[in-house]
Amino acid sequence: MNEKNVFPLPLVAWEHYMWKDDRTRYPMTFVIRLEVSGELQRVVFLDAMKKSLERHPLLKSRIVRDGWRGWCWLPSEADEPPVDWTDAETNSEVDARLRLPLGEYIDLTREVGLRVWVHSTCKRARLTFQFHHAATDGLGAIQFLGDLLAAYGQVTVLPGEETPEFGTLEIARLRTRGDHGSGRFDSRRQRFADLKLFAEEAWHLFARQPKPLAVRMHSDDQRDIEFPALLTRRLNRHEATRLREFASKRGVSPNDLYLREMFLTLHDWNRERSTWHPKHWLRIGMPVSMRTEQHDGLPAANVLSMFFVARQLGKRIDVDALLKDLHQQTDRIVNCRLGWYCATGVRWAARIPGALSFSVSERHCLATVILANVGDIRRQMSARFPLQRGKIVAGNIVLESFDGAAPVRPHTHAGVSLGTYAGELIVNLHPDVWHLSQADANELLDRFVNRLRAVAGPSRTEQVVPTQQLPPQSQSQSQQTP
Length: 482
Hints:
- It is a single chain.
- By secondary structure, the protein is an alpha+beta fold.
- α1 (13-20) crosses α8.
- The longest helix has 20 residues, at 188-207.
- The strands form three sheets. A seven-stranded mixed β-sheet has the order 5-6-7-2-14-13-12.
- The chain has helices at 13-20, 42-55, 138-156, 188-207, 237-249, 254-273, 319-335, 338-350, 355-359, 438-456, and strands at 9-10, 29-37, 61-66, 70-75, 83-87, 114-120, 124-132, 231-235, 281-289, 304-312, 369-376, 387-388, 391-394, 397-405, 414-421, 424-431.
- It has ten helices and 16 strands.
- β12 and β13 form a beta hairpin.
């Protein structure tokens, strides 16, 4: 179906919520950064962008007011995503910091929800993408980037080599992006049990006010983390495998393990840096994908919900009991589809004047941190590629690394995202640049990663293959392995 038969497309409640929770200092945007080896061809890349945007039209759309339909998405051919291209061969002295003529904030009523920066040399390139969260979630962004690489690879592939292939997408499926199915109402008894569980969790959300991450306020002059505020660590194949084995032997998921180590990290951090009491609550926000079979073939969109896990950690912590307890709760989230209740609650709030604005008030701390796990990045792409040492080959380039992190909001001073690529576990931190210095953000990330490494155990020595590097990045953009 042609996009003209689908648009204007009214915003669904969750998109409206993401749009309402947008601020100049805390934009509801997230960044994904790719490093590719090989010579990136500019004309082919720009053509691949256009082709991929045709497949993912929300990323080339603005929000407009359309009569009785209300606020709607409308593709804007005149306002295609800006691509800021720097060729390091002809601009060797160009500062690696990204140019932001309109600031970090994306006004969806005036521009589309995607910006792109390319910093290229003859042998390597860094691609930075800023997405508005109302237009897509992380999984949708990964799907778009997979299609972008596939479109590029189809043109630059050499004769006789394997060609990347697109997955099947249907623009008409965008109409289903706000349909999360029904709750698990198999019987009246089950319906009562599920509603009771949801009521308990809703009460906890309001009654258990979480303690924010202990931070210090910074003035604009004191900010020392440049855009994009993205810090990265990597655990090698052996460490990632050991973490999965550790979780499997205890009958839990790796995500349960990440949750436990994050709670312990937050507990130690706040106890050392603030007035701490054992009855203080820590809360971790977890994005939950609401995609079902009916969303197969869906272009990039935001089909998320949220769930919150809160704990009080006293002076003596039984780490094994904590892991088991967290597993029981996350198992409930999945089996009882509690994310459906949160998404439904947002839909109900959207019908009540002022309710959404109250829910995104800056006075409330919704979570101490956000912890998102996107899983295997390559498997989240609908496009299919030939591989080289487990890495995606797109014609004349190879995707060497993939980094990205969740947005932050007032009083939630850090967003942490995890994913795997080419066997490595990638851990990214998006710090609140107005409250965390470069040193504090690095220390927080190192503490969490060191906990994961301690669980994984001693690492095997891996052969390091030297690569051609880009010109030095600004400190906030550097990838470090402690």
